[in-house]
Amino acid sequence: MLAAVDGSPESLRAVDWAVDDAFRRGARLRLVHASVWEQFEQETVDDIELAPERKAIEDILDSAAERASARRPGVAVDTELLAEDVLSALLGLQRYSPLLVLGIRGHGGFPGLLLGSVSLRVAARAAYPVVVVRGEREPAEVGRGRVVLGVGSHDVSAAAEFAVEEAAGRHADLELVHAWRPEIDMSGVSVVMDAGAAADRAQNLLGAVPLPETGVSGLRVRRNAVQGRSASSLLRAAAGADLLVLGARRRHEHPGLQLGSVSHAMLHHAPCPVAIVPAR
Questions:
Q1: 84 or 138: which carries more pLDDT confidence?
Q2: Considering Cα of 86, then 26, then 276, then 12, what sign does the dihedral take?
Q3: Among residues 12, 134, 180, 198, which one has the fewest Cβ atoms lying within 10 Å of its Cβ?
């Protein structure tokens, strides 16, 4: 379990969420901070008297580690300073096969923005699961009892496995949500809207989502086919949820942002933390 820290209030909320999740998973938590400055200064800073910039970075990491340990004393917490620009450093964390937790924006973001550019770019490109902590000002130590999995037309098996693990760890219900709209038949003289066929297709799609048997045992699973647009339906479903989980497709030859419009909207507007889980 990893959490990115820059000392901002949003990153500290991410630390709280991450240490709670590490506690549920029985995992270690590593707090990371990236600094290009470190690339140039690491050979010139002696061991006795650290440069002010380096000392400030270490204070950020140490303070965040103390906060995490105070919140969950049983979780092993360590820190790592990454000598790279923030985006390259976070995308390079794939070597840990991590779950990375981010705040909605850091010190580099503007208060008026709904989502910081770094959080968006990492969530849109990372080859590992990323959670962006949205919603309440302070993550609750006691959950609300519901994890939502958004189901689209693409493979969501990795996202489903992640959602099951999160729901089981929280002793929460798992709700699978798929939005559908009536099919339009324009083959005849008049336009025909077939709601029944579309609703049946949605239920079949939800029923076909693979859920790992080891995690589902004792878990209450609800499958909710909702008539309407995907984004608005997921926003309603996420209200009062502990976590919204979405799958993502990655094309490794494509260097740009790889998020669909629905995932993009959820990262900007969801009322709860959002997990983006790449397909295998």
A1: 84
A2: negative
A3: 198
pLDDT of residue 259: 81
- Mean pLDDT over 228-235 rounds to 95
Name all contacts of 189-198 with Cβ < 8 Å and 24+ positions apart.
195/227
pTM of the full structure:
0.87
Find out whether 153 and 243 touch, Cβ atoms under 8 Å: no
In the structure encoding, which two tokens stand for residue 174, read together? Answer: 């798992």
The answer to whether 38 and 81 are in contact (CB under 8 A) is yes
* Distance (Å, whole) CA 207 – CA 210: 8
Q: How far is CA 69 from the centre of its chain?
A: 22
Q: What is the CATH number of domain 146-278?
A: 3.40.50.620
Locate the domains of the chain by residue range: 2-133, 146-278
- CATH architecture of residue range(s) 2-133: 3-Layer(aba) Sandwich (3.40)
Query: Ramachandran region of residue 264, left (φ > 0), alpha (ψ -120 to 50) or beta?
Result: alpha
pLDDT tens-digit map of 147-191: 999 999 888 999 999 999 999 999 999 999 999 988 665 555 444
The two three-digit tokens of residue 274, written as one number: 């959002």
Radius of gyration (C-alpha) of the chain in whole angstroms: 21
Write out pLDDT tens, residues 81-133.
998 888 899 999 988 888 999 998 644 443 333 456 888 899 999 989 999 99
Same fold, 2-133 and 146-278: yes
